[in-house]
Specification:
The chain is an alpha/beta fold. It has helices at 51-58, 98-109, 115-128, 144-157, 174-191, 202-208, 237-242, 246-265; strands at 8-18, 24-35, 40-44, 66-71, 74-75, 83-86, 162-166, 194-199, 211-215, 223-228. It has a domain at 1-76 and 207-266: 3-Layer(aba) Sandwich (Rossmann fold).
């Protein structure tokens, strides 16, 4: 396998927490998965199965109990600018404008650039996500969807090697979620950052990804399968829905989730 086929490598990942009674809670056990350079992968599974734990370890925000994460053949020591992270809530500094929130990260990762060059980067990404006329507004003046656009712009503006997204549209209404999915596809398509996104939405996963990684229920969740998404890029929602394989793949994903919902209930 070429090294580019393992650009983001999650290797034999296990996460265990101690219980108050002295036992152990195994959240994820031996999770093993690799993502190629420029690939967009969605990680799907039921709520509470450990998807966000895997993503947080990949972001360097949680230490693994066993195993590790490599980006471009280098093990991650913790959080770093080589990974842009987008959460459900964008965590913007309320006293700063959208522009300044994005600039804060760009200043940190591109100190060698001039102020004019950094400003041009920030403006470019805010315009890409549709905030050209609102970039100088503070978070309180922006809707939830607009604040999430700022979060996307901030992550892309860092020019990371890997983009990590933890259910970034989970708190949005359906219409806004659809709009932000389109924004993400368009922004990602410009430079094809290697991306891993956590979601529990089957349709979102099929629209966005090149492959869907299926995660079993916890405790001791693991990789339960991988589904290749054949829809050509550039991609539109209408074209995806009209593709002859769309409903076949959708049924496979739903079938996996239903199977594990039954086993969880049992």
């Amino acid at each position: 396998m070429r090294s580019d086929d393992k650009y983001l490598e999650i290797s034999h990942l296990t996460k265990v927490y101690p219980k108050p009674d002295g036992g152990e809670a195994v959240i994820v056990r031996d999770f093993d998965f690799a993502i190629a350079k420029g690939e967009f992968v969605c990680l799907i599974g039921h709520s509470g199965c450990g998807k966000s734990t895997v993503l947080s370890i990949a972001a360097g925000l949680l230490p693994p109990t066993e195993g590790g994460v490599l980006v471009d053949d280098k093990e991650i020591p913790g959080p770093g600018p080589d990974r842009g992270v987008v959460f459900q809530s964008p965590c913007l500094l309320p006293w700063m404008s959208a522009f300044d929130n994005v600039m804060l990260g760009v200043d940190a990762v591109k100190p060698q650039a001039t102020r004019t060059e950094r400003s041009a980067i920030v403006k470019s990404y805010l315009e890409r996500v549709g905030l050209g006329s609102a970039m100088h507004k503070k978070p309180a003046e922006l809707s939830q969807g607009m604040r999430q656009r700022v979060g996307l712009a901030r992550a892309f503006a860092l020019d990371p090697k890997v983009l990590l997204l933890d259910e970034p549209f989970g708190m949005l209404d359906s219409l806004t979620r659809f709009e932000l999915q389109e924004v993400l596809v368009e922004t990602w398509s410009a430079d094809r950052k290697t991306a891993l996104m956590v979601t529990h939405d089957v349709d979102e996963a099929l629209f966005l990804s090149d492959r869907v990684a299926l995660m079993t229920n916890g405790p001791a969740a693991r990789l339960g399968g991988v589904l290749t998404v054949p829809f050509p890029r550039p991609r539109t929602r209408a074209a995806v829905l009209e593709h002859p394989d769309y409903y076949i793949l959708r049924e496979k994903l739903i079938g996996f989730l239903e199977e594990h919902a039954v086993s969880k209930a049992a």
